Each structure stands twice: as structure tokens, then as C-alpha cells.
């Protein structure tokens, strides 16, 4: 099938196909996260970003491809989440500029647009790193330019682009040592490859519904992601449609009740009819299932038709959710709103926006002067639009943003260019750095001087995080086992231990030096005050001249956040 010109209908199909493909493969992309922590969200970020782009395209009534390209870029810009989503938005910003005035796209136009996208993305990243999505984009663009010299067929150009992206993706571990050590390709590059695959399939008319099927070992990571998307985000307990989280593992062909052979599609489709958040992973011997349903017994009995149950787990999510709600203070929204209103009075002309998750951490930021809170962080990267909405709704005359996560820097920076007041982004890589930075806020100082003082404060802080490993891996020569607790200091895994307390103590010991004076411990949802006090005592046993502070943060993912100043 030859396509000499891409019309608006074909372009819409290209964007839709790629959006669907990213959505379908988001969890696989997430699983490529280098660190074995429960925060691998590249696939989620890229999928949500492109979904926003497609929404803008679908709402456009234009019949010109150039106009649709502009709509795609705008939607990606506003919906961009995480660094991967922002880079994807920059690729298509350049893509759209190249085709802005085109009614249709020729093969040469397509190659030019792909090339323009790469140039824009490289300019947007302060220190481009090879072995990432940028490498994949660049190699794919080279193939597009070379191919168009010998053909006027858009299908051939897009096929060459996609194939080159695949080949470049395979080389990313050779270019980025950490990828090679862990044994994965770059997750952002994988996402872009899926995008180009969708473009090619739409143009060639050979759209597949395939998705990468991970192995059984990757199932736990996917379950974590499903739970993140599911029950905790429900506003009311009664909104939970399927109340029982049900997991089974079946040894195929074994057992007295086996009466049929296992067929993956038939098995999965049946379970899809009785629940949601469904994950089914299978090999020749075992099938593992995770599903939210009202009828866990039906899941168990259906599994027995194919083999023996070797693992069963059923949780009542409504009870879990009610417990979470009961922990919240009465009228907490009203209380938080009042605290923010008081903070705004004290901030003068300033707005101070911080990205943070956990009631205790929010209270800490508000007490130090934060006027606006954007719920997010690890696994929940806000979009450019989220930042723009808060700043635009404020009466402040200037804003300071604390991203508190390096994966949020680009979306925050992008937002500064879309609002009408001066906005600065403080480069806080963690909530601990954010807390240290906001401590320096002075409403009587100008914007530049405030940011200078804040970043000077941050430079004196060592930031540590304790979390649990979600898979076995080797990183920086360190053997890490699934379910180990890891101490991560300024982005590097420095210690591992079988329990969170030991990991925290060992981590702090590695952070201390002769200049250390204050240690701050913030315990999260999976930590507790009693254990935090045991960690405090262990720290004082190391050096009783240290000052140790303990705060309740309620943060997810990290049982303990610990800073040393």
C-alpha cells in the first residue's frame, strides 16, 4: 500500500493508533525503570501525555494536516507529564512547526517534520544524554532523511523510521552503562518506538492489537501500578465498583477439577467479564491473575478448571479504603484550605507552589510558607497544564515552584513559559530539598534573590530515601534482591537491608560527616513513629552531638525520608 500524501483523516488515524499503542503498553514501559523502586512511571507519563495530544486533535474540526499538527503539539504541551512526556511534547512541537502550513504531507514533508522534532527536543534538554529517547529520535530521523531520497512513499519513510527506532533502542544499553548493568533498554526510547510503530501501522493499514506480554516475575510491579491507579484514588468508598482484589496462581494441567486446556485469550476474556484492573501473565506451566471483582469465588473456581491453585489472595478493598478514610482528620479539606489562606496572606505578592503527597508533608510545607499544593511526586507526575491552572487561578504577582522530583523539572519549566507572571523553578530533587529550600523564603526579597538563597540552602542538604525493591537487579555493582529495603542518597542506592530500620540507620551513617549537625526523619505510610525513634537513638549512638528531628509525613512509597544538614 502506497501513500503519496498524508491527509487529515490519515493523520488522525496515526495519532489515535499511537495513542492506543502507548496506552496498551504503558505497564511494560514502566517495567523498564532502571531503579527497582515502585515509581517506574515513564509509560504512564508518555501515555497520558499523548492521550492529551490526541484529545486536542479529535476536537479540531480542521481538514488541514498542519492545523492538526499544531493541535497535537498543543495537547502534548499541556498534558506533558514527567521528563519523558515533556521530551515527547518537544519532539512533536518541532514536528508541528515543520508542517504548520501544510494541507497534506508528502514523504519529504514527513521526513522534514520528524527531523525538526529531533532538533527541537535536543535544544529543550540542557545536557542531552545519549542512550535515551533522544538517541532513538535522532537515529530514526536519520533513517527518514536517507529513505526519502529514494522514494515518495510515506509508508516507506515511516517504516524506515520505525525500524531505525527499534535498532537504536537496542543500542541504548551500550550507550548508557546503567542500562547495560540492569539489562534493560531505555524506557523513554521504548515509548517513542511504540509511537512510531503506531504511525507506521496506521499508514500501512496493518494495525495490530499486540502488546508486549511480560513474564511472571514482572507481575508484582504491574499489580502495584494497577493499585495506584485504582482504589486509593476513589473519592468515596461506595464508588468502588469491584470490591475484592483477587490474585491467584494456577499450575496448569494439575488438579482434580481440570476439564479444559488453557487458551490465553479465552481465559483472559472470561475474567474481563467479571471484573476490572485485570492482569493475566502466563507461560507453559503457570498462569498468574490479578483482578478486581465482586465474585472472587468465581475467579478461583474458574482457575481450577485449568489447573491447581498454588497461590490465592483476596482483599476487601472497601474495608481497606474505609480504614484509610478513617485515618484522615474530620474536615481536613477545610482545615487545609484555611492554612493555605493564612499562608497566602503572609506571602505578600508571592505564590509558592510545591508538589508533594502526604498530609504531614503538606502541613510542613504550608507551615513554611507554601501557598499552593499540587498533589503528586513519585508515580504521580503532574502535567504542565496542572501547573498552569494553579498559577493562572492565583492572584499572586509572581510564583516560585518546588517540583521536589527531578522528573517534574521539565513540566514545571514548560509551565513558566505559558503564564503571564514571572515564575521561577527551584531545582529541588526531593521533598527534603524542597523543605530546606522553602525555609529560606523571605516575602520582602525579590524573586531572583529568593531563588538564589533557596538553592544555596538546598546545596547544603544530603537527601536520603528508604524504599523497597520491587525486583532483583544489579546496579553499580550492588546486588539487590526483591523485597530488600534500599537506602538511596541523592539518587544513588548506597545500602540495602532486610528491614527498613536497618536500611535507614546504615544510610544515615553513610551520609554523616564532620560538618553534620541536624538529621531530620520523616516517616511515611509504611513507617511509624516508634521505629523512627529507634532510628533516632541509633543515630545519637553514632554521634550524640547531632540534633535529630522527627516528623510525620504520611508519604507513600518511602517509609522514611531522611536529610542530613
Descriptive keywords:
22 helices; alpha+beta; 6-stranded mixed beta sheet; globular
Specify the number of helices: 22
**Low-confidence sequence ranges:** 213-235
| Integer average pLDDT | 85
Give the number of DSSP strands: 18
N-end to C-end Cα span = 64 Å
The general outline is: globular
Strand order, biggest sheet? Answer: 15-14-11-18-16-17
Largest sheet: 6 strands, mixed
Helix percent reads: 40-55%
Strand content: 15-25%
Rg: 25 Å
Helix/strand/pairing class, anyone?
A: alpha+beta
Tell me the layout of helices and strands.
Blueprint: E1 5-6, H1 8-24, H2 26-30, H3 42-59, H4 65-79, H5 82-99, E2 105-106, H6 107-124, H7 133-148, H8 154-175, H9 177-182, H10 187-204, H11 219-229, E3 244-252, H12 264-272, E4 275-282, E5 286-293, H13 296-304, E6 307-316, H14 317-327, H15 332-346, E7 350-356, H16 359-367, E8 372-375, H17 384-393, E9 398-402, H18 409-416, E10 423-425, H19 431-438, H20 447-459, E11 462-468, E12 473-475, E13 478-480, E14 485-489, E15 492-497, H21 500-511, E16 518-523, H22 529-542, E17 547-552, E18 560-564
Parallel strand pairs: 7-8, 7-9, 9-10, 16-17
Antiparallel strand pairs: 1-2, 3-5, 3-6, 4-5, 11-14, 11-18, 12-13, 14-15, 16-18
Helix pairs in contact: 1-3, 1-10, 3-4, 3-5, 4-5, 5-6, 5-18, 6-7, 6-8, 7-8, 7-10, 8-10, 17-18, 19-20, 21-22
